[in-house]
Amino acid sequence: QLQLVESGGDLVQPGGSLRLSCVGVGSAFDYYAIGWFRQAPGKEREGISCITRSGGSTVYAESVKGRFTISRDNAKKTVYLQMNSLQPDDTAVYFCGADWGCGSVPATQYTFWGQGTQVTVSS
Length: 123
Fold this sequence. Notes:
It contains no helices and 11 strands. By secondary structure, it is mainly β.
């Protein structure tokens, strides 16, 4: 069993940056690929990014490519999502999830996932 805890969400102005963290609690964190997805009110869930177990491969949604960067530190059981050039459309609850691998596009469903962290982009 793997538990995931997200943090780092906040209120930020358009053009600003945030770094989200996803910490794994329990064993075998480095057995899993970790991804991020987001859910905004009235919108469909959107897969954002995914990183493989070793961190050697990543995938991004077109909507965030060039602005967001995913990385991981398995020694700290943590995956990060660096978000730059944030826009109001990025406002959502951000979740991290764990699964056996990353697909060719970021997934919206995972075997394990956390409770989410709120990101609000507004002036």
